Amino acid sequence: MPIEKRWVVKPQGERSVVESLASHLRMSPVLTNLLVQRGIDTVEKAQKFFSPSLRDLHDPFLMKDMERAVERIEKAVKTGEKVMIYGDYDVDGTTAVALVYKFLSQIGHKNLLFYIPDRYVDGYGISIRSIDHAVRKGVKLVIALDCGIKAVEKVAYAKQKGVDFIICDHHLPAEEIPEAVAVLDPKRTDCNYPFDELSGCGVGFKLVEAYARRNNIPFKEIEHLLDLLVVSIASDIVPLVDENRILAYYGLRKLNAEPSKGLLSIIKICGLEGHNITIDDIVFKIGPRINAAGRMRMDEDDENAAPSGGHAAVSLLIEGNEQEAAKFGEVIDSYNQDRKSIDRNVTQEAHDYVESNPELKAKKSTVIYNPRWMKGIVGIVASRLIETYYRPTVVLTKSNGFVTGSARSVAGFDLYQAVESCSDLLENFGGHMYAAGLTMKEENVEAFTKRFNDYVEENINPSILVPQVDIDSELLFSEITDEFHRQLNGFQPFGPGNTAPVFMTRGATNHRGDAKLVGAECDHLRMDLMQREKPHTTIPAIAFQQPTHYEWVRAGKPVSVCYQIVENHYRGTVSKQLRVKDIKPER
Fold this sequence. Notes:
The longest helix has about 35 residues, at about 320-355. By secondary structure, the chain is of the alpha/beta class. Helix 16 (about 380-390) links the parallel strand 7 (about 365-370) and strand 8 (about 395-400). It has helices at about 15-25, 30-35, 45-50, 65-80, 90-105, 130-135, 150-160, 200-215, 225-235, 240-255, 260-270, 280-295, 310-320, 320-355, 360, 380-390, 415-420, 445-460, 480-490, 550-555; strands spanning about 5-10, 85, 110-115, 140-145, 165-170, 180-185, 365-370, 395-400, 400-410, 430, 435-440, 470, 475, 505-510, 515-520, 525-530, 540-545, 560-570, 575-585. It starts with 5 loop residues before the first strand and ends with a strand. It has 20 helices and 19 strands. It is about 40% helix and about 20% strand.
């Protein structure tokens, strides 16, 4: 049974401000109310919101250590030093590596290589193995992206070996910062950069922007890299405000108009060619395929195998030949198909385990451990369990002699603090409020499980364990005109900090009784809904994974629905459709 959701209508904007904006902007008051809810309460702010400008990007040299980073790269370029671009194996890391690699190639520095750590051998972040590899290859400078902020010992080891590091990270630092040539991280307490929510690739782009500015390279000559950056911004779920909104806006324009050859191959595989690609398309279609490469364990004994793991993802993203990119795209897609199969099986095992354990099912958190599960998909499984049980969740497996895993949270609960409370039981951990990774010795699993569960029990507000649907405002279907939809699209790109608006309509009916259950599992409800009020406007709707209301809706009984307004692409036609978030029968 689906979890009952709590519906909460957000505070509405001050009426006089909403109406004044509606008059000046010639917009529906429903839409100007959305602006005011987002803190956009003047015409000037609205104009900036609807027309993001690259001129409003922050000066990259405001970031701590940026001068030192640029100077060190200039030295490497001038003397022809071998440079390694190093990054995490997820989308943020691989796009960051591809972005910096492509830029350095563009300015003529050919003495380059890149390294993506193997999730199953190196583990997360900078590894001794990777530094030894750099030494063997004659590398003098490593630019580490989306990782490294806690790699104090590893950077010291590299320094002893004659290898310099520039770290570009966006994760929370510990008290001690690595003694690298430069440590770029807007979350450093001693960094005064005005925006601290960049992705790892975003920090890498600021480094590129700074180098370009210092060396009189016009911004338009690095703008082509923004398609990689928007894939990072969307996939890493960073807030789409401030610089991220500007960079995502222009990144989407690039991705739609003239994507790089590697991304084009993924776009074609996803069936998105010719569509207006959105943040959702990246999150649900493009990003998972790139991510899949770093999740899968490869056959290291197969000499004929394609480039493995995250390395294959970067190879795809930097490829300039369309035919070669298509080949890499097929490899990446095959990884994704394998990942989905394993993901389904492990998720089912995890569900069965929880369902068969009444004591675990009754708790306010979930910690499960199975040494057979693949390390690369435990984060996905944790997210799937939250969809069913909606509580902080940790999924653990065994890799390289240690127990390792991923933790995911629910809205309003600080997962990082919960994991940090167990730090003496952990070999290492990292993350943020809603997601974390952790590693421990197997003998500590039982103690960790108890302490984590106890922490959640003592610190979580029970109301948090009821999923909430935040509704922007009520709306009639008759108000969803083509012009309304056009203006609503101007609010894009949507994401954290600027979520796609959720509307509510009361008394809707499937008056023709043509509701259908669709999808491979027949768990999606498709219907045409008609509003109660005249002119009785009808609009198509889809409710994913909500089959329980099928009989009620098909019988033509009234429901309240909350939904987002989206575009439906079908056989070359584009139409408006409601993506239903939740349904409540009206008794």
